[in-house]
Amino acid sequence: MAGPVITEDYQRKLENFITAVPLYYGDKPGETGEVRSMGKGSKTLNTQNGKFTADDVDAIKADIKTNADFQRMTGYTHYDLLKKWVNDRTTTCNEFCSKCAVAMGYTSKDGVGKFDIADWLTRYGLGHCWVPASTGAEPKYGDVFRMFAKSLDRNGVNLNHMGVSLYIDGKNWYTVESGQGGPTTGYDVIKRKRHDWKPDSLQGWVNMKALIDAEKPIPHWLGGWWEVEEGAYEVWYYYFGAPNKVYYSQEAPTSLYAPPNRPGTIGSFSMKGMFGVQISWNSADVDEELTAGIQDPKKRRFTMAGKSANGVPIKAERMMIQGLL
Fold first, then answer.
1. What is the spatial distance between Cα 73 and Cα 42, in angstroms, rounded to a whole number?
2. Burial (0-12, 13-18, 19+ Cβ within 10 Å), 233
3. Which CATH number fits the domain that encloses residue 234?
């Protein structure tokens, strides 16, 4: 069995961070060790025989022990997990991914452990860091992946999951993932796993090298694709990305996840206050100034309005990624 290819400093940092997670030895129960949320001798509760309450958790609080490695890699104590599971059946896959990203050197306050990660990256002008599974590429050691399927998982909810890719060996894909337990078992688990490459549920992954090397993100309301009407008849498509670059094309984007493959005209932009955008094109095109209008994250609608330097009115609406991400 081949091993992971580790060539970058951020990958070595991840390797050190997950060293407490036992190596993968097989798919059968007990073949591969795991890091559980509860420490040795701890009491716990589960939902196999009915839902437990906050009072049930507090009744055994003195006998609840936490695995220190699990807490280090997720931020959760076992007591915190039980309290969460009183009303929320989700596990710690997201938190584990965020902790891994920080360990690799990602310094943003916003973690990558988000189910809407593709949309989130695009909103900050970092769409180039998202790799859709449909591209035919393969994740590298440390890349954070996103899965979704309508089938139910062990906790009776849709498979809605994130994890960290380690390496691919032929048809085998090796990963490290938290969220391998849950309220039905009474504890959560971090474990190295093997999947068949590539599962139908795989949506894509974050290229962590690109993300760590990326410039400062741009305002969350601005990044990504916009449909722009100039005057009464002309329609253009703008892409705002880091670091303060903007592209336009007459052709609608084939994917809202990423910048254009063959950029048309390129320009730069600067912020004027919190909600004003000044665009300078690297061509004979006249400069433009736009101001944010509607900002409604719940309805996923953002607009801008303004004019070109020669007075032509401009209005724009953000092209939002749809569906579960």
1. 19
2. exposed
3. 2.40.128.10
126 phi, psi to nearest 5 deg: -115, 30
Same domain flag for 153 and 240: no
Dmax (CA) for the chain in angstroms is 75
Instruction: Indicate the pTM of the whole model.
Output: 0.86
Provide mean pLDDT across the span 113-130.
88
What pLDDT sits at residue 170? 93
Number of folded domains in the chain?
2
Do 23 and 68 fall within a single domain? Answer: yes
Give the model's pLDDT for residue 5: 86
- What the block records as the tokens of 322 is 């749809």
pLDDT tens digits, 145-200: 999 887 665 555 567 899 999 999 999 999 999 999 999 999 999 999 999 998 88
- pLDDT, residue 82, reads 97
Considering the domain boundaries, does residue 217 fall inside one?
no
Are 66 and 102 spatial neighbours (Cβ–Cβ below 8 Å)?
Answer: no
- pLDDT bracket for residue 1 (50, 70, 90): low
Identify the pLDDT of residue 158.
Answer: 61
The pLDDT value recorded for residue 11 is: 97
Q: What is the distance between the alpha carbons of residues 187 and 63, in angstroms, rounded to a whole number?
A: 14
Range of the domain at 256: 224-318
